[in-house]
Amino acid sequence: MEYNIEGGLNMELEDLKTTWQSVKPHIDSQINDDVANGVLSKRSDIKSRLLKRAIWEGIITVICLILMALSPFWSPMKFPYWWLAVFCSTIIVTNLYGIRIYRSIKAINLWEDSNNEILKVILSIKKLYRNVELATAIVLIPLLIWLSLTPMFIHSWRMFFVWGITVLAFSLEYLWYRNNIKQLNNLVNWEKE
């Protein structure tokens, strides 16, 4: 009788093993699908966050452009018109690049593009973003320093105001830039988020 029990147990174990072997590939593929969907979901959240940030950048830039263009009517600073023209032109150019960055992010198809294609787009966005930040700094920082050292501004509250606003604006822009680059990196390396 013991032999039948052992034989029966061995038979049941063999049946369980056979059943498990037949079901295992389906379970593995389901787990892989779930993991892939989780990755795509995280990437989709990051992409949405980047798009929202790009929209906010555009809105803030347009508000700054309007305020700067209309500053002769409301500002006690009395900026020279040539200075306002250069500053507003720089803001317009950066906004156009912001639109290009937004479109590049929006064009990423997380479900169809390969990781290599996504990485290429991310690298081009990062390069474009870095170049815009660098060009803006090269144009605006010397302009702001030069403006603050003109006779109308030197050794007055205006000079210190321009310096303070310059340091504050570029510090905030640097933090915003670093956060955007981190989000772009997370779009490729989602597990580091």
Describe this structure in words.
There is one protein chain. With 193 residues, the chain is mainly α. Helix content is 85%, strand content 0%. It contains five helices and no strands. The protein starts with a helix and ends in a 5-residue tail after the last helix. The relative contact order is 0.09.
The average pLDDT is 81
Largest sheet: none
**Number of DSSP-assigned strands:** 0
Regions with little confidence, pLDDT below 50 for 5+ residues: none
User: In percent, how much strand structure appears in the residues?
Assistant: under 5%
**Based on CA inertia axes, which overall geometry fits?**
rod-shaped
Structural class: mainly alpha
Secondary-structure element string: HHHHH
The proportion of residues forming helix, as a percent range, comes to: over 70%
Q: What is Rg?
A: 29 Å
Number of helices: 5
Please describe the structure with a list of short key phrases separated by commas or semicolons:
single chain; 193 residues; mainly alpha; 5 helices; 85% helix; 0% strand; rod-shaped
